[in-house]
Structures are given as C-alpha cells and as structure tokens.
Amino acid sequence: MNIIEFLKTKIELSETEIEQISKIISRKKFDRKELILPVENSSKKIFFIEDGFCRVFYAKKEKDITLYFLQENQIGLPVDSIFYDQICKFGIEAISKGTVATINYEKWQTLTEQIPNLQKFTNSMMISYVKNATDRIYNLKFQTPKERYEMLQTAFPSIFLHSPLGHIASYLGITQETLSRLRAKR
Amino acid sequence: MNIIEFLKTKIELSETEIEQISKIISRKKFDRKELILPVENSSKKIFFIEDGFCRVFYAKKEKDITLYFLQENQIGLPVDSIFYDQICKFGIEAISKGTVATINYEKWQTLTEQIPNLQKFTNSMMISYVKNATDRIYNLKFQTPKERYEMLQTAFPSIFLHSPLGHIASYLGITQETLSRLRAKR
DNA sequence: AACTATTTTTGATTTCAATCAAAAATCAAC
DNA sequence: GTTGATTTTTGATTGAAATCAAAAATAGTT
C-alpha cells in the first residue's frame, strides 16, 4: 500500500497536509536481492515497504544472519543512525521485487511538529517498533526453532515463497540443513 | 537516583510541574528476590529503578530465563499491557535490595499532555527502549555467549555481585555449568 | 526442450554444549 | 566459629545440531 494511503487508514489528514507529506517522500522500485540499505551504513531515513518483502540482516565474515523480515506496510528504521548518530549495523535487502518509500527523518520530524496527527502516528509507530522488538526477544529467548518456524508461518506466510531457505534458517537460529530436516518431518 | 532528580538531569521542570509529577509517583522499597512484577500479569505502570538491581525474566515450567537486567535509573515498561492491553509475559524480580518508583501510565500520559518537556522525556525514553531492544537482538543473534559475557561485564559490572550465576547464564543463553567453565579459563 | 546454475534435500561424521551427578566452596543463621 | 543450606565448580556421559560432502530438485536462460 502507498504510504499516504496507509497513513490515512491510521490518522485523519487534510488535503494540504497530505500535500506537505507527499513532498518529502521519495519512492523507489526494487528487484529481488537488491540492497536497499547496505550493512554498516549511516542512513537517517525511514523505509516504508509499500509493496514486496525484505529482510533486515547483518553480515560479517562468512556469517549472514537475518534479524527479521519486513513485509508490506512495515517500516525499517535505522535506529542507531537516526537517534544516536552512529553507524547502523543492519542492512535491508529485498527478497522479492517491490516498492519502498523513503523519508528523510529530519524532514519528517519538522512535519510532525506542524501536524499533530502525524505526531500521534509517529508515537504509535515507535510503540509498535518496541512491541515487535520485545516480542522478538521473547521469541529468541524462550521459544524453540520449531516454534519460531511455526510463528513465522502464521505471521509471514508469503516469506516462504520469496526467501531462500538459508535466510529463514538464520532467522530461526539454525542451519539450512536442520531447517530442511525439520520441515521434512510430517 | 530519585526519579525526580533523574528527570531534572534530562529536562527542565518548574516547581509546580515537579509537584504535579510527584503526586503520581509511588515509591516502594524491595528486598533481594522480591517479585516487583509477577510473570504473566497485567500492569499499566512504569517501573523506574531508583536504587538496586533487577532482572526482567520469563518463567514457565522449569524454565526461568532472564531477558535483561535493570539497574539504577533504568525503566521497566510492560509494553504489552500498557500499549496493547494484553497480559505482559515478563516479570521483574529484584536481585538486590533497592527502591522502585512506580507510576500509573495513564496518569503519566495526562501529565505529558500538560507538560511539553515531559513529552520530550517520554519520547526519548521510548527511543532508548527501542535502542536497547534492537541492540539486544543483535547481541543475541550475532554474538557468542562469551562476547555477551564480556559485554555484560562492561555494561553491568555490579550485576555479578548480586545475581546468582544461573540468572546470568540464562541471560547469556547457556547453562550455569557452561558459564562456570567459560570463566574458569584464564 | 536442453543446459546451467542455484537451491534444497539427504547422508555420514564430528563437535560442543546440555545433562546428570557429585564435590567443593560460599553464604547465612545461630 | 560451627552447622546447615545454597551456590558454584568439576567430572563423565549423552545428544542434538553443526559441519562436511554429495545427490536431487528447482529455477532461469538461451
């Protein structure tokens, strides 16, 4: 979904407000395997996935680990860079073709000061970000790879159509061979 | 540190504002092993650790896993309950004696609408919460138990004086025996 | 459709941490 | 300080998943 459409499902916006917001959005199509945000980069942008699937990952010497997946209407936020002026460890890679809307965070910030409803949206965006992260920590600490696999199936069924096994395995915390065996049973 | 003192280090507050805030704070001393927030409870309160150490944990059938530690001036936030009206999976347990300030989130919320600086504080609280959570995910997915151990030592050196090994081990993601062996080397 | 490249599955072996069990050390209470 | 309880360390064994290697299956290209 187009980000403006998405905003309109969450908050009320006047025509002029929509225009203001539209001005700071840039939109880009991406292909499978395309790097939307490189690892260990500094980027102060919001990445809103309008269409398609991505993975947030970290890669260093041989290891390539998927932290989480993003699907339509979800947001990637380089927290380290935007809020702490640090290099962001994670990168974002496309696992299907699609469209991403990117917004310079500073410009977004100035708009939120003018549009109260947009501030509300930003707040709830942060809250859902916190929620996702804490859920993920629970999932990593307290659930088994199998349970993780099942949760992923219900939360992101279409990921399996797009993502190579290896990325899913690293998300679950097992090797691709183990995942292959895990799902062969039954 | 007293929460009011802490707020004053972060934002400017008038005398009347301080009074307003003070009214909604309740303060409680706790002892070692005391349960500050039971597991799978519903609580819409902010827990600010004024003094001492706690752990945020989850426990179910035999398993008892520490998600993270809290020390002085840190905040425990039952995200699920406050923002999603769900039961909060995690509990908070004291690992030393100390003091916790608890604040009803709704009352806090109303105050933030009146005190703009307090809103700023809440925003940066959410941001640091996001930062901590995403760092933790990175730590869990990309670092070894040994690296985790070393990070914990630098970030929370005093945890080791208060917490039984088992809790630290579950935080790191290994058994207590393995941790014991890990630190015996050298 | 045929060929190539990539991805997934299957098999055999190894390894590292969990488990089980007991001893040693530390802590707490009297 | 002594006793008992709790926590930590050490040792032996087991098991589950990683690794290594190759075959099978799938997808992509001309």
Distinctive features:
homodimer, 186 residues, alpha+beta, Jelly Rolls, four-stranded antiparallel beta sheet, 9 helices, 8 strands, 49% helix, elongated, DNA-binding
Question: Could you explain how this protein is built, in words?
Answer:
- Two copies of one chain form a homodimer.
- Chain A has about 190 residues and is α+β, with helices and mostly antiparallel strands.
- Chain A has one domain (about 5-185): Jelly Rolls (Sandwich), CATH 2.60.120.
- The first copy, chain A, contains nine helices and eight strands.
- Chain A has helices at about 5-10, 15-25, 80-85, 105-115, 115-140, 145-155, 160, 165-170, 175-185, and strands at about 25-30, 35, 45-50, 55-60, 65-70, 75, 90-95, 100-105.
- In chain A, the strands form two sheets. The first copy, chain A, has a four-stranded antiparallel β-sheet.
- The N and C termini of chain A lie far apart (about 35 Å).
- The relative contact order of chain A is 0.17.
- The structure holds a DNA duplex (30 and 30 nucleotides).
